[in-house]
Amino acid sequence: PFTFPRRRAYSERTPHGEARVATEKATGYLAKVLAEDETVLAVVRRHWLVLFLKTIGWILLFGATVVWAFSLFATSLNPQFLWLLTLAAPFWAMWLWEYLVWSSHVHVLTPRRVLQLKGVFNKSVVDSALEKLNDVKTSQSILGRIFGYGDLEILTASDSAVNKLRTIAKPLEFKRLMLEVKDGLVESDAA
Q: Are 47 and 167 in contact (CB under 8 A)?
């Protein structure tokens, strides 16, 4: 669900004080969104617990539907139970849709900006320039601290001001990395 290069790579500094970062290769729609010389430093998704809870919901709904179907058709049960497979098809399709939505919602850190990409068919991209970054607000519930998820709000100098990253995995690491990259970017501009 998330990709962070080794933490050690981000704590090292070059002789000029710039953050030394490892990069990843962009693929798919992300490769089209990035500039030609822009690299991916980190990719994070919504936490796996989001998908897990939706999966549990679909399982419970399917179970309730099966119980309802058995009570309704208890007198005329067919021993082959093929109707049960037909009953399961919409639930599998809806779960597959939930998975596609979850997997297509990513947050990407580059040396220049933070991008929020979402959408299975219709894509939406929100980006915040690191040089315009004013503040980053982190929120974690007690369950978020236990399971390692939380929310980030990126405050920039623009009028829209806030880019919200909800229930992301490892929010503190992503925030720390974002600020380290921004500091490296600011130091290289000043030199």
A: yes
